[in-house]
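Notebook, p. 212. Picked up where the previous page left off. The plan for this session was modest: take the two constructs that came back from the sequencing core last week, fold each one, and keep the raw output in the notebook itself so nobody has to go hunting through shared drives later. Recording the first one now, exactly as returned: residue sequence, then the structure token string.
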Amino acid sequence: MCGIVGVVAHNPVNQLLYDGLLVLQHRGQDAAGIVTADGSSFHMHKGGGMVRDVFRTRNMRGLAGHAGIGHTRYPTAGSAWSAAESQPFYVNSPFGIVLGHNGNLTNTEQLKNDLFRLDLRHVNTESDSEVLLNVLAHELAANATNYKLDPATIFAAVSGVHRRCRGAYAVVAMIAGYGLLAFRDPFGIRPLVFGKSETPQGREYLVASESVALDGLGFKLVRDVAPGEAIFIDLDGNFHSQQCAANPSLNPCLFEFVYLARPDSVIDGISVYETRLRMGESLGRKIAKDFSNLDIDVVIPIPDSSRPAAMELSKQLNLAYREGFIKNRYIGRTFIMPGQATRKKSVRQKLNAIGVEFRGKNVLLVDDSIVRGTTSREIVQMARESGARKVYFASAAPPVRYANVYGIDMPSRDELIASGRSDEEITREIGCDALIYQDLEALIDDVRSVNPAVTSFETSCFSGHYITGDVTQAYLDGVEAQRRDDAKAEATAAATQLDLGLETID
């Protein structure tokens, strides 16, 4: 899960890109980067941390140009964070190209081997985004005549990328001297939208991970980039698009609607906010039907993403809705923080209970999902410490039991609290008096009901079904070994040594 943005305008775009990354900050907090195109030259600045910490006035002054791309990083492939892996990435042969990527490739090792042995290209990091960039560069070279590019040649290159790459990817790229390229994987797993703005100087275009970035920057949403489609906007603002995949199908990630996306975004014609309201309605119906024995006094959401569901749930059950937790908005999203100890500590820093809403009451806590269980366990304990008689816990999503290999950091099954445990065992693990999970079929119906034209979703973290059809158990075992918290800690330490230019001595 990362945030990407690209723009072609008539005025300098550095502020537009910065503002776009701020709006997409929820999609990644580890690193941020901006590249602008000034004629055939690129200007780049990137680094570790939040957007506001990476860019200073002096950095922004150096980002000249009327077109560019930006990226905010949340790592799922490679180390937890390394300066070498912050995006966008750059290659200079045979064309100058910069690229930012949201998602995760599932055949990275094969691609690396092919790039080195067959394409004679070198990949310098563990990032699959650099692999994707080099595949694109090779395909552009293979399809170009006399090293000249036009939209047809660029789209032929994207078709080559689709033939070679597997997994989930939404991409923005700049080709020096040519323009902005954006494309989406043939399964449409990760989101990508584009919009336009009519200015006195002419039309401008913006591409982003979520529609909320368009809203905040004054662009009107045109539509989503279709699965397998590529769009190209040249430096004069001319728009081109083409379907570049043989058999595209739309399968948006279900977890985007549960947790990842901002509620004010619209993805593939589906309002995220409306889906979360409907999740609360259906969860309320399930509680009324199967858990009518629970003597609930009050419904309390875990801020922020569960609020719409909790409100509709309380309405469905005719129960009081109360805000029982105050959120410190200067703490990042605990789900995407590396390391169990860091996540556990940040829960208490991020949330504080309002005692009067718990004291002497039987409370139903509502969260969007339960992943590792760290947050849930700490929150249940906070509710008890605040005087709750009984603490019930409801999840607007089904149990997360399986690895996600398409760009969400929930890979290791032994770190997923629902993996291999029954609901009763999970109840004991998080310390609540009763636990209610949403059903997968109901969740799919909730999302689909907002836009019935979308008939299929990527549900692997709930169902164990991998839509791309290439994910084997051996692959899952390898990924999980690399992405456990202890493995990430080792990778981060190694990356820090590399960034500092230090030599490790045994």
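Okay, moving on. Second construct, recorded in the same format:
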Amino acid sequence: MSAEVKPRVADVDVRLVNVTKMFGDQTAVDGITLDVSDGEFFTLLGPSGCGKTTTLRMIGGFEQPTSGLIELKGEDVTFLPAHERDVNTVFQSYALFPHLTIFENVAFGLRRSGIKGDEVTRRVGEALELVQLIGYEKRKPAQLSGGQAQRVALARALVNRPAVLLLDEPLGALDLKLRKQMGIELKRIQREVGITFIYVTHDQEEAMTMSDRIAVMNKGHYEQLAGPETLYERPTTRFVASFVGASNLLEGKIGSDGESWTVTLPSGDVVRAPKNLGDIGTGGAIGVRPEKLTLLEPGQESKGNRLDGTVVDTSYLGVLTQYTVEGAGGLRLLVSEQNVDRTTRSDTWRPGERVALTWKPEHGFVVGDSKSA
């Protein structure tokens, strides 16, 4: 969107300080403290019931916190009504007015703000151009596809140029292919307008694709707040390791071996991870992602961590083949191999075959028990 750009008065657009929300005796949000930076694409990621939507609704003014502080661009808005906050929200339902044209849907907020005439036409045109819907002005919402309706809802939310745009699972009603396309479009639009986006989703792929930073939420708080790469490569709790991608967690007796953490498995095998990966704590584990593992013939030599096992399942998934390997004591691990050099199914490992699993210690990670942030 061209034209005026609102001056930024703070590096932090949204600040939450020890925000708690109770519904009766149930704690929906449990003392969250976080800052969302100016121009950031920030995501609240987690399963149903984790408190992410309640947190978004408190930022938007649709819910009031039981305690804590909410600031928008340095101003205390904790108890300010939604219509007095410089934010707009895009919901999963889109909430378009069925009797209005696309032009009038997008212009609705401008007209309510007292803007008239050519200024309305210009700004609606800019918003529709941004979401690539020029030429759709005279259509009604019933004449649009789901993806087009989502774009109209986004244009309507952006046309007033809010300081912060809140998005509550806006792609949830779309099919998988369209969700992926719209995810790319959302990130493009956010970069073009430079507005802070706070996005809520339970879909970790969506979050990883679009976000600058992600708060992984569980039971009313976030367990880790970091960029997508850090969350994936260096999760700090069991919950984050399992919710963001697939993980193999190896648990047993924790020890230390020079510069490495060690876990002695019930089978007696020992696996290692460098101490610079973090603090394993008491009751922690060493983890490794399925694609970091390599399958070898049992007699092949290898360096680093090694476990022997038997292939119990093989799943061909197109771009990769996924194996389930059972080790000593019933331990099961997932292994993902890219199908780069494979041309037929006969090239895969077969159930019942003995294999060795190997990986470099520095390709693992260490996690502790789930905890409050």
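Notes on construct two before I forget. Residues 1-9 have pLDDT under 50 and may be disordered.
Flagging for discussion at group meeting.
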